[in-house]
Amino acid sequence: MIKLFNFCFITQQISFFYAIHLIYPFNNHSLFYNKNGIIIDIGKKGNNYMKFTLFKKAKTSVLTCADGKVVPITEVSDPVFAQKMMGDGFAVIPTGNTIYSPVSGKISMIFDTNHAFGLTMSNGLEVLVHIGIDTVNEKGEGFKRLAAINDTVKAGDPIIGIDLEALKAKGYDMAVMVIFTNDKYSELTLMEGDHQAKEEAATIQLA
């Protein structure tokens, strides 16, 4: 059985090798192998070398962190977020009183005022969830912590409760920003529009 498997695998690799070179001529391209001898990349020789990965990581869903409308981060009123100074992401204009974790990971920090929290995913991607603009000035009033620092949470778990109407009555813009603050991803696709909490709001290609 093992010999048959090895024979089939070698035959597959040889077939793949020649199929690739029907598209990418020998004199212009190189094949790249992993430590087990499996073809994983094709690159162009010379100064115009280009490399692409044949086996990309699957995209990961990012959930809506509250009931409400998903909008591009560039539409929020705070230029620090809108100009992506802290990273790319999106915002939710909330209609509900619970803020949920948009991804699975570990809660790395929660501000004392409970208006923002950070998550670290298993691949190292860091996510900041910031509830409202200038709401730090409330010093925690209108916010209730539902989880703790260092908790391991799943996407959709409740993290912070808010008194949405009371905060809006004080004049606060209550957009909830979801920001990816480091480079552990390579692509963000957004699903704009009205969503229920815990529905898919975006997908990310993990790096």
From TrEMBL:
<dbReference type="Pfam" id="PF00358">
    <property type="entry name" value="PTS_EIIA_1"/>
</dbReference>
<keyword id="KW-0808">Transferase</keyword>
<dbReference type="GO" id="GO:0016301">
    <property type="term" value="F:kinase activity"/>
</dbReference>
<feature type="domain" description="PTS EIIA type-1">
    <location>
        <begin position="78"/>
        <end position="182"/>
    </location>
</feature>
<keyword id="KW-0598">Phosphotransferase system</keyword>
<keyword id="KW-0762">Sugar transport</keyword>
<dbReference type="GO" id="GO:0005737">
    <property type="term" value="C:cytoplasm"/>
</dbReference>
<protein>
    <submittedName>
        <fullName>PTS glucose transporter subunit IIA</fullName>
    </submittedName>
</protein>
<dbReference type="GO" id="GO:0009401">
    <property type="term" value="P:phosphoenolpyruvate-dependent sugar phosphotransferase system"/>
</dbReference>
<keyword id="KW-0418">Kinase</keyword>
<dbReference type="InterPro" id="IPR001127">
    <property type="entry name" value="PTS_EIIA_1_perm"/>
</dbReference>
<dbReference type="InterPro" id="IPR050890">
    <property type="entry name" value="PTS_EIIA_component"/>
</dbReference>
<dbReference type="InterPro" id="IPR011055">
    <property type="entry name" value="Dup_hybrid_motif"/>
</dbReference>
<keyword id="KW-0813">Transport</keyword>
